[in-house]
Structure formats: structure tokens, C-alpha cells
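Human: My hope is that you can spare some time for a protein that puzzles me. I am handing you a single protein, as its sequence and its fold in C-alpha cell form. Could you go through the record with me and say what the backbone is doing? Take your time, and here it is.
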Amino acid sequence: MLLGNHEPLKGELSGFWSRRIDGMNRLVYRLKDGVTEILSCKGHYDD
């Protein structure tokens, strides 16, 4: 179950979205040409 709302990222990760998975982990992803690309699904995108 994903928690919270998704939020757009800025800077180098502009075009990607972040969604909290649990209290410690986030899913960082983008939709491109109908395909979901996952950049990270563990930790925080700054780690």
C-alpha cells in the first residue's frame, strides 16, 4: 500500500515523481511514452 500523495521532483530529477512507500522508503518513477520507468524504490532519492 502506498502512502501519501505523489509529488513532482525538481532539479536533476525533473520529470520524475516521488511517492512514499512506507515511513522510510520512496518510489521514484516517471511515465514516458506509456511506460513506467522506476528510478528507485528503496531509501530516499537524496541518499
User: Anything to note?
Assistant: The CA atoms of residues 9 and 17 lie 6 Å apart. The radius of gyration is 10 Å.
